[in-house]
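Give me structure tokens for this 141-residue protein.
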Amino acid sequence: MKAGKKTVEVVAAIITCNDKILCVQRGENKLPYISKKYEFPGGKIEQGESLRQALTREILEELHMKIELKKRFITIEHEYPDFNLLMHTIKCTCSHKKVTLTEHLDFKWMSIENLESLDWAAADIPVVKELLKQHDEFIKT
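Here you go.
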């Protein structure tokens, strides 16, 4: 990643429920390369928060969901035109598919094999590819 650009550190949840994964669509943004793109839900880590605390807080704020955090998945470093992104992902589960959107336009519960059909934010694409590669193992864990 290029020095000189601001680096934003975030944590994202790969939430599964009945072998489906929650995908959320971002709202409109002045940055066209992330506007209305799909992503794994999550957000910025506030000072003093652990990854797990930040993720639990963000999912409760943005989706009104309680999730169970399982294990770390992968960390992505991505360079967008205006900033660098460091995104940690954590595999999570939930007991129901009820979602209340507070910041996103839409959500979909998708099977791993259909994830590529969505218009993903660039930083989330490597996560989708890794999920496809680890499909069988991911569903079991």
